[in-house]
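The protein record passed on below.

***
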Amino acid sequence: MTKLPFLLLFEFSAISLILGLNTEGSGSTYHNSYNEVEQEQETYYTPELDYKHPRWCHLLKLSNGEMTCTSPRGGNHRSSLGTRCSLSCDRGYKLIGRSSVQCMSNRRWSGSAYCRRVRCHVLPLVHQGTYTCTSGFVVDSRCDYTCFQGYQIEGDRYRICQEGGRWSGIEPTCADHDPPKLKCPVSKVKVAEPGKLTLSVSWDRPVATDTADRSLRVLRNGPESGSEFGEGEHVIRYKVYDQARNTATCKFVVRVEVKRCPALKEPLHGYLTCSSDGNNYGAVCEYHCDAGYERTGTATRVCLFNRNWSDQAAECVLMQIQTDIRSAGALLDQFYEKRRLLIVSAPSVSEQYYKLQNIMLQKASCGLDLRHVTVIELLGSPPREVGRIKEQQLDAEVVEGLRQALQISRSYFSMVLVDELGVDRERFINPTTSDELYNYIEEYLLTEEERERLELNRDLCD
């Protein structure tokens, strides 16, 4: 009975000596740390189950970290059944896995872990600058920024990789605050030769320089060197940008003088077309008349060297309509591509609709004329039927031809609007105001040029 405790103590001491374990008091703590990164490899010691001996888990290893273990059998039994180990990593490393493990009855630890080196993300390159780092992109590494010649740093001059894997501060920039330099030619005053309208002017293109950028693009606003310049002042501007959007500008003036005649006035119910710039020496101006008007006088005038116009101004008078003809076709041919027609038909001059419409047409005479519209009246029935254009009477055959060609009835009031090509465009069976007529004509019958001229002369009828 006295030999059994001695044998157990001897056996335990022998095992401790073989495994290289130190014995300490029960409940003591064991610390172990390593400096290199290693991937954990598990090995298992599986002796036969014998309750006379403690159960062992494999020996824990944690590279670049530290383990603090507590065993119920004492510090020498740091992998015995029930041993608990708290795991932590050195500065610059992050624990991946369980922070605390225990040796289980199945001879395995309750979890695993390893220390992974903490790295900050690779810093992006700085435009027009660079950086150098003390230890790459690991914790506590410092990266210092510098800018290229001609640029100044804005923001943090250095950044440090922090323990959480983030860089301190914010990314700086390299800014160019110095604008480029640009010089324009001197202004020029030139006189055009007699009989010429423009003058070719040339100059040396400005050259830009900058402290940061080697090549700069100079932009021009205005005619280029060697262009033909007309009369007056012409401002040529140059602008240059560097990559930082700093700008430099300069400008100069090219002035060309041309001998001129007084500006001609357009004829009433007509317009002018002139060569060159309109009233310079040698310019030729031709008089044109609106549809339904005829020109009287000299068709063209020339600006002379003495700054006066040749001949006298032409005029535009209302076209003479030939009414002593025998067919509707001959009448309509006179208006083809010149005037529009508004043909008014009524059973008699006393018809109420006609009387009301006639009052409105008399007030609209000027407005219809501006819109190139001639009014033809077809009134009554044979043998007392009357056809007229203002005070000019139409032959009975012409009246009948118009009614047949345009299918105009004598039995009721109506109006037919015919365009300058002789096409029936619109019919009205009730009295229509002048504004309604104007709106329809302007929207559907007038050309764009006629609308523009109408706007210029609209107040002539007021």
Remarks:
- The chain has a mean pLDDT of 85.
- The longest helix spans residues 3-19.
